[in-house]
Amino acid sequence: xxxxxxxxxxxxxxxxxxxxxxxxxxxxxxxxxxxxxxxxxxxxxxxxxxxxxxxxxxxxxxxxxxxxxxxxxxxxxxxxxxxxxxxxxxxxxxxxxxxxxxxxxxxxxxxxxxxxxxxxxxxxxxxxxxxxxxxxxxxxxxxxxxxxxxxxxxxxxxxxxxxxxxxxxxxxxxxxxxxxxxxxxxxxxxxxxxxxxxxxxxxxxxxxxxxxxxxxxxxxxxxxxxxxxxxxxxxxxxxxxxxxxxxxxxxxxxxxxxxxxxxxxxxxxxxxxxxxxxxxxxxxxxxxxxxxxxxxxxxxxxxxxxxxxxxxxxxxxxxxxxxxxxxxxxxxxxxxxxxxxxxxxxxxxxxxxxxxxxxxxxxxxxxxxxxxxxxxxxxxxxxxxxxxxxxxxxxxxxxxxxxxxxxxxxxxxxxxxxxxxxxxxxxxxxxxxxxxxxxxxxxxxxxxxxxxxxxx
Length: 456
Ligand SMILES: *[C@@H]1O[C@H](CO)[C@@H](O)[C@H](O)[C@H]1NC(C)=O
Ligand SMILES: *[C@@H]1O[C@H](CO)[C@@H](O)[C@H](O)[C@H]1NC(C)=O
Ligand SMILES: *[C@@H]1O[C@H](CO)[C@@H](O)[C@H](O)[C@H]1NC(C)=O
Ligand SMILES: *[C@@H]1O[C@H](CO)[C@@H](O)[C@H](O)[C@H]1NC(C)=O
Ligand SMILES: *[C@@H]1O[C@H](CO)[C@@H](O)[C@H](O)[C@H]1NC(C)=O
Description:
The chain crosses the membrane at residues 248-267, 279-296, 308-333, 434-454. The protein is an alpha+beta fold.
């Protein structure tokens, strides 16, 4: 009797428990009889559709977990002026809806159904950096499984604000952020999670983007954080998208032509300074370079000062310098051949020092083409104070001795003048070489600096 009572008690308890459990399970289970014969019965899902205005949870103090994943399929444009990156991505959202549940065995083995999204509750995930109207197509579908997992995929053209640094253009790398967060639900009602490992997202996106467009996807990283707005916290997942520009187009269109022009400019120093072609040649180069700059203006970013602008300015100033140098040397040559000014003693000794001994011995007989007789006079003739002292008796002697002597004096004067001219010419050549070396030195250092800056 006792045993029976106990047994009865236990049976009753079990029955109640079973009924309770069964009941709670049954309330939301969709009766799908006939799905395999007549198709899905909309009435069976009506209870679910009616609840779409509310967050699908049984206990409202439990937050909904929404898992996020995306595939970056293209980087369409990076606008340095507006600081915008336009990309294309497929966003996947996965969450659990406890009101959708059926037994696949009773439903002709159907375990997955697609349902039009306008009938379902959707999480309001958006991207913080988004700077455009959402152009997501309407009328998309979502997949629901017999366990209530809902998967919603949508394509998005994302125009996101991004802090772009174009200093290293065209060898620049950018680090743009995409922060996914809920528009309304605080952390008490919605938590975000990752559907896939971020490395996997990165790998898939890299494979997709690989051979497309101007930008290469380097890496995607991710951090989770809670964003505080007023007193509430919002769950947020931030993805860092690191991209690098393909510089090939810019190297071909900007750096190579500019490099060629500056190389030709440097080579034009080998045109003899007394030739009339040097200045016009350099002028043409300068004009050509200006035209090139005007044409290439469109390719350059509009804001900021990238290093490449500095490089262009440098090339331009080198060309201007080389033109000015040519003008100066031409002027100097003209001046000294028409009316050579007396040469200061220090300059003369400097010339003697600087020109190599071989050159000095070679030039001396050439210049004094009247013969060896003139060479002893040349040296004192150039040292002005001595020249004056030595020259004073010269004309007197010539007057006394008559014509032959005076012509000889004139010849000597002429020779001395010619020698002075030749020295000045030599000086001009030296100046030319010196300035050319300075030019080369400046060019080499500045271009190396820029290349070093670019490669870091
Ligand atoms: C499911 O619905 C059919 C008719 O639509 C009904 O005959 C059947 O009893 C229902 N099953 C359950 C478990 O409620
Ligand atoms: C709802 O969830 C909260 C927190 O998990 C729990 O304390 C509470 O008992 C739950 N309510 C019901 C009716 O299960
Ligand atoms: C979301 O991801 C977490 C792990 O990150 C997992 O435990 C959870 O079941 C996922 N939720 C859904 C709805 O897939
Ligand atoms: C991503 O790709 C790299 C090599 O490209 C590989 O080593 C790594 O295992 C991949 N990671 C995932 C999660 O697929
Ligand atoms: C992008 O910037 C964030 C923070 O500024 C940093 O944590 C992340 O490592 C950067 N990513 C790359 C690839 O440099």
